[in-house]
């Protein structure tokens, strides 16, 4: 039933989410999504690592994209909860990869877990679990 | 380096954790663990489902067992954080299966995620992420 | 608008929640609730402390009671998320006191934070944040 | 024993945390901290509100500052866990105020809860609970 492609989501993000400019959807469907988030100097904190807020951003974006893949382009969906564990120091010179697996997509809430990696390394740098509130008029495509 | 078998963990739980009497380790190793938790009438709440505290117990036990599999039998390890999302109504007449994947086992903290199922159903009933504090004298086997 | 008294909630719990038999509402209103949870030998784990699942139970009950105080007796409200941090070893021979402060009571979700104490000690033993899903027919009193 | 003033923390942040340039410590001590985080156009997302990652940043910073107030200026302290609930839409044109209360400052972990407000409004826009890992050589001032 998923009729939203990663190209459509990338186009939507490029148009409506300037904050997501560093993110690109690389896989979408089967109850999940994978994104690549470009790391440049602005994302680094002292000591040469990727900051916590940037990792939060990637987790949030991966979950949002995965939800869009299930319910369609819904600009108004909002995160209600995010729990994130920081596991290892990310590489300063590698993109961050976010892999989201949806655990439930209900009428009102969608819940997913996201594992974050530094590109090329199998040991996760962070793991998050998040909840999205789905607007009552589910699936509607609105243009703000 | 994992020299702890599921039989050893089951024997340890039977001896030292009367609260875990309903739990049985069915798989251990490769950075994870699977447990089966027997559901009987005491675990049910009005409406005929498994209570939240029982699901919490299963998540906590699955994580504890997975950590034991990595660091050895350490009775004093303690949970410091558990975040649990309740996803679907569990079956009242099915055992709960807890599948833990360790995300990191460091010198001081171990973090894992746990997916909980009603036996025989692939849709998870709950998902948790937890942290254990590892005692300074890591790996020591102590008998309280 | 809160027309539910702690006596009414205690009566409801006594009738419909045998698992809550050890809990007693001692304060209700002003966007919060306080409960006392009786600790006896069944609640203890090796080493003589209160188990994590019991602390989870107290947090969950305190939040549930606080929500009931705001929306009325709604047996079907369900916890969707609980995040709990275990801070200090609880006293084995003291009741657990749970103090819930509601952060938001919306149409669909109620969120609260709960601080847990061993009776008579000001240092919290645990802290939790939880979310309840409120049934669509908000405020209705139903008897399962 | 708290010998760190808010002025010292502000000076430290200004020197070593360019990302914290929008934050200012307005109160410090007694097991907590309050910060003010300036909101300008970069922090806004479509619909005219403060983004989730910005609220995360404020929570993280408030907790970090509160921990510094207890253990001294320790640049290497790292967040290990953050759980955040988004409660209400923040005002687009108000600063965000973060109020952190420390729940525990142990030898290895510090845990605190943070309530976030839009300046001038008593209803919280978000609430978070976070954990910091404290470096083994506690209290040492190091300059990376």
Describe this structure in words.
With 144 residues, the first copy, chain A, is α+β, with helices and mostly antiparallel strands. Chain A has one domain: Thiol Ester Dehydrase, Chain A (Roll), CATH 3.10.129.10. Chain A contains two helices and eight strands; from the N terminus they run αββββαββββ. In chain A, the strands form two sheets. In chain A, strands 1-2-6-7-8-5 form a six-stranded antiparallel β-sheet. In chain A, a hairpin with a 3-residue loop joins β3 and β4 (49-50). Chain A is globular. The relative contact order of chain A is 0.20. Residues 138-144 of chain A have low confidence and may be disordered. Chains in contact: A-B, A-C, A-D, B-C, B-D, C-D. The A-D interface holds A 16-17, 19, 45-47, 51-54, 56-57, 60, 75-76, 78-86, 144 and D 16-17, 19, 45-47, 51-54, 56-57, 60, 75-76, 78-86, 144. β5 (78-86) of chain B pairs antiparallel with β5 of chain C.
User: Cα-atom Rg of chain A, whole angstroms?
Assistant: 15 Å
Q: State the assembly state of the protein chains.
A: homotetramer
Shape designation of chain A? globular
Task: Give the integer mean of the pLDDT values of chain A.
Answer: 87
Tell me the strand percentage band of chain A.
35-45%
């Amino acid at each position: 039933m998923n009729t939203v492609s990663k190209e459509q989501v990338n186009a939507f993000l490029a148009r409506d989410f300037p904050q997501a400019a560093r993110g690109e959807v690389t896989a979408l469907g089967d109850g999940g999504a994978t994104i690549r988030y470009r790391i440049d100097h602005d994302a680094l904190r002292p000591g040469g690592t990727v900051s916590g807020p940037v990792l939060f951003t990637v987790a949030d974006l991966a979950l949002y994209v995965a939800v869009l893949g299930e319910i369609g382009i819904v600009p108004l969906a909002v995160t209600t909860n995010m729990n994130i564990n920081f596991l290892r120091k990310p590489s300063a010179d590698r993109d961050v990869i976010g892999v989201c697996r949806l655990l439930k997509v209900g009428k009102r809430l969608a819940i997913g877990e996201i594992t974050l990696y530094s590109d090329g390394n199998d040991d996760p740098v962070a793991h998050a679990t998040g909840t999205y509130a789905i607007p009552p008029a589910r699936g509607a495509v609105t243009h703000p």
